[in-house]
């Protein structure tokens, strides 16, 4: 597990990026505070910001792609909104924050939905509005290390130290158990909230390595992770709480959001076909959890980082923007070849690489491929988009990388006729592209930007978590 964490951290360093946008602070599009409701957001065609807690069950990365139970459910919600509102412009960006910052971030307007396996407790209901639950009958159990004394009844917890995730429902439920012990003249439970950057999966790993004796987890999470951490002891016969409900949270004033999520919940809740399929994918199929990402070649990713840095510096690009482009194009697979003849991680055509304006040979090698793709992006930026603000030039260059420069030049003229700003991509020429050529290019550029935002927030969380660990 430690090896996987180091691998993931290295991969995130390769993927980390700051999204290009039309403002000096390129993250403003996603980090600005906003407290409106769903109709306003959809009307303005703004992305839905989903607040998540990065862990290895609900939201995580494999091969640079986002995965997890909550991720899959929210992507299904994205499709649901597109269908119910007959819109091609529904977008989601996932913003990772420490678990105990989920509700504060929501209330501050830094996100629109909390999708993090959140138990709908009475205390939380006083702060936020919950949609109808999509899972019920949740049981919270004690998990012990190999050396821990068995917990066969709740009274066995008297005087024990139990480390739990900060801000979790486990804290309140353990404190309630402890309070009953005090009334009975017994030693209270020593409830220790872990560092805010650690999540339940981290504490399970720490218990398995005998760093702590006891922790708490939802039973389904404990059971799946025991397949990867076989020395854990699960004391399922003595839950500290049962009958819990997991639901998505929104701000109290977001009534339309709550209604929409509740309606959607009915299509994916426990017992539905989709709900059962998604749950089975992550909680019954244990192959991914035993050794996630083990098939990845870390040396190859490290090698790519060096090349992105090398050619980013040479052609005046942030290397992590180049890495994000490569991920969008090929998922870092050098063997990728398109039906149009584009090859390699940067998906560049031999004819483009051989053009006098690029003139890079050996694009069948990783070095040559990244070099050619980067030089071509620089050519697009300098030749066709010098007249727009610097912070928007890469947006247009990315669009041209996908659709061709002449097509994008035509879209700028169309945007002007539509009363839009021809010098801004997002929210302007982007909509002209939807009108004239469909969703491929707008989606392409938006996907790159949204990966940027997600990777940025994930990296910030994992950097702190790695320091704690």
Task: Produce a short descriptive summary.
The protein is α/β, with parallel strands linked by helices and 469 residues long. The protein has helices spanning 2-15, 28-31, 38-43, 69-84, 102-108, 122-125, 169-183, 200-208, 219-226, 255-268, 273-283, 287-290, 298-315, 319-330, 350-354, 366-384, 390-403, 405-417, 425-437, 440-468, and strands at 48-52, 60-62, 65-67, 92-96, 113-114, 129-130, 135-144, 161-164, 190-193, 214-218, 233-235, 241-246, 249-250.
Structure report:
This protein is an alpha/beta fold. It folds into 3 domains: 33-134 and 247-291, 3-Layer(aba) Sandwich (D-Maltodextrin-Binding Protein, domain 2), CATH 3.40.190; 136-243, D-Maltodextrin-Binding Protein, domain 2 (3-Layer(aba) Sandwich); 298-458, Lysozyme. Helix content is 50%, strand content 12%. The chain has helices at residues 2-15, 28-31, 38-43, 69-84, 102-108, 122-125, 169-183, 200-208, 219-226, 255-268, 273-283, 287-290, 298-315, 319-330, 350-354, 366-384, 390-403, 405-417, 425-437, 440-468; strands at 48-52, 60-62, 65-67, 92-96, 113-114, 129-130, 135-144, 161-164, 190-193, 214-218, 233-235, 241-246, 249-250. Strands 7, 10, 11 and 12 form a 4-stranded antiparallel sheet that branches. Strands 4-1-5 form a 3-stranded parallel sheet, with helices on both faces. α7 links the parallel β8 and β9. α1 (2-15) packs across α20 (440-468). It starts with a helix and ends with a helix.
